Amino acid sequence: MTLMTLFGCIFIAFGPATVIFLVAVARDHFHVIIMISSAFFWLLSLLISSIWWTIVSPLKTQLAFGVAFSVLFQELFRYAFFVLIKKAEDSELVSLASKSSGLFKHKTAFVSGLGYGIMSGLFAMVNILADITGPGAPGLNGESPQFLIISALLTCAFVLLNTFWGIIWFESCSEKKYGYLVVVFGSHLFVSLMTLLNNKESYLGSMLSAYLVLVVMAVLAFKVAGGSLQNLHSIFARKLPSDMRSEDVTVVSPTT
């Protein structure tokens, strides 16, 4: 039973990210490197957050302060990674890669966000996954038996949110649309603070806020990446079979 729960939570938390990686990233060695580098920058933000939490004593008693500074450091290191990518664009390797694809800028932002999200999700779930292996079962000591599934769903949401935040953040920095920076930081802080409701087993509030923001960020990321309703229509519109497109259609009028 514990193994079934373990693999179920793993698939829920990291299933979408794994599919995205295999379909869109794994075959491109350059963007695999970008994703790993982005994950490393998230680790650096975690290191700075831990040092800050140790130095500043109020953070040890007020969890909300720790969450706020953790979000701040994550976004600062997201910006630092953007600056690093911009400086690397002058290199020959990046120049060749960018010329090979017109979507290079957006894909780099997407991949960096995915790396950020996967590393964030791994650290969010590692202790929970270790406890799931047993012995025991959730809820024996009066805790909610839904805690594990809620944690997996929130981790999935944060992985995808970081992916969308990466796209929006890179676009706002590239085009100097600083309003998007406020949106990213504000939504990140809001969703992170809402997860504190889980301490009171108010799972509905944290889940609804996370997935509502996820939908909004997905639409915004699609927009800043150049997407439109016309693009969606062209993708999903049904195309005529090739034999019908090549066939000449003639209209014969009746003779009198």
UniProtKB/TrEMBL annotation:
It holds the Pfam family Aph-1. Keywords: Membrane, Notch signaling pathway, Transmembrane, Transmembrane helix. It is found in: Membrane. Its main location: membrane. GO terms for biological process: Notch signaling pathway; protein processing. Signal peptide: none annotated. This is Gamma-secretase subunit Aph-1.
